[in-house]
Amino acid sequence: MRIEEKLREIETSNPNKKICIVIGDPVEHSLSPVIHSAGYKSIGLDNQFVFEKMNVAKGELEEFVNTARKFKSIVGITCTMPHKQSIIKYLDENKAQIINAVNTVLCCNGKYTGYNTDWYGIEAPFADRKINLDGKKVAIVGAGGASRAALYTFKKHNCSISILNRTKEKADLLAKEFDCQAFALNNEEAIESAEIIVNATSVGMGEATNLSPIDISLISKNHIVFECIYKPKETLLVQAAKMVGSEVIYGWEMLLYQGILQFEIYTGRRPIMEIMKNVL
Ligand code: ATR
After folding, report:
1. Which of 16, 67, 170, 190 has a Cα-to-Cα distance from 277 of 20 to 30 A?
2. Which residues of the chain fall below pLDDT 70?
3. C-alpha–C-alpha distance, residues 196 and 173, integer Å
4. Helix or strand or coil: residue 210?
């Protein structure tokens, strides 16, 4: 009932608006409402769309989707941890089959369709810097949803990929699925020989704010370090990379670009990027 009441409250306070909502647990830290709202304003859609957030725990997802379906005003559901994979079984169509993690659900005439926009959040910052990804040697640290999006992006560019994960078995499974190599987290050779290192773990945020998923002494100026975490902006890994003079791609860049693609899916329009960027 809490979910229905909360959705009713959102609908009542936003009469005649199309509602997008980010769900997760935790969700408080999510900047999706901030960037989408800036995007709406940037092209004059703020009187038509609103973007809210709602804490939905793991065990509440089914109830949330069933309840949301009663609200025709809901046009988009953004999924963050821990729902990116579990949402799939409640969808009518999954357009993110290869990645198999959904962060974007378009709700249109009662049909719920899942997409993934994280892969674009990973690819676009390289394009911005005119870095050609083709054939690069990449170490992806982590084996969760963000790693799957990274794998999709780098596979697209025929990169040679190593996956390093605390739970080696998970890295093994992913490596088999995406035809690449798996290693334990502390594999020095895989880190040192990579041209690009991606942190797709949650190490560096929350309770692990002052930690790095890999030994920072292995980072050199020859690496490009891609950090998926955007809060804090400068994780320990990013600080270490900057210290040795590596090129750094920040989590806020990934957030921005995945958000732009998501915005287009929800609204059918392209926002003004600079305005979205300024709120980050
Ligand atoms: P997401 O969908 O955001 O990628 P996830 O699926 O929960 O989130 O994945 C989190 C990743 O961070 C996993 O690779 C996890 O490692 P395990 O597979 O061993 O759990 C990694 N991770 C989380 N906490 C970690 C820690 N303290 N040290 C190392 N890796 C950690």
Report:
1. 16
2. none
3. 22
4. coil
